Amino acid sequence: MRDEVDELAEAWARERPDLDLSPVAVFSRLSRLSRHLDLARREAFAANGVEAWEFDVLAALRRAGSPYELSPGRLLRETLVTSGTMTNRVDRLAARGFVERYPDPEDRRGVLVRLTPEGKSAVDAAFTRLVDAEHAFMAGLSAEQADELAGLLRRLLIPFSAGE
Known about the structure:
- By secondary structure, the protein is mainly α.
- The chain has helices at 4-15, 22-46, 52-63, 72-79, 83-95, 117-137, 143-161; strands at 69-70, 99-104, 107-115.
- Strands 1-3-2 form a three-stranded antiparallel beta sheet.
- α2 packs antiparallel against α6 (117-137) and α3 (52-63) packs across α6 (117-137).
C-alpha cells in the first residue's frame, strides 16, 4: 500500500541522498492528517453552529465538570490566548447565550464564566460530531494499533508538554 508521501520521500531521496529522510515519512503524513482533521473539525463545528474558537472555550468549560465554570485566568491557560482575546471571546459567547459571568464567591473582585444549558448543548453536539469524524479517521486501525499509535505520538509530544 503506497501513498503520496512515499512518492515525495522517494523524490527527496533521489535528490538528497546525503540526508536521512526517515522523519519525512512520519511528519509529512502527520501534516497531511492534520489538514484533514482541521477540515473535519470545522465541519463538525459548523454543522452545530459553532466556530473553532467558540468550541475551544466551551469545551474548556465543559471539561471542568459541573457547574461548568472557570475563572478567566484558568480559561486563558486552557485555551492559550491573551487576556484581551479571552475577554472578547467571553463577551461574544455571552451575547450568543452560551456563557454567563458570575461573581467569584472566593474573590469579590473576580468573576467566573459559566456554561449555560444552551452552551452545553452546543458543545456536546459539536463534540459528538467531531468524535464520530475522528472514529472514521481511525477506521483502518485495530484497537491495538490505535493504542500503539497514541502511545508513540505521546512520546513525541512529551518534550513539548513539559514546558507548558
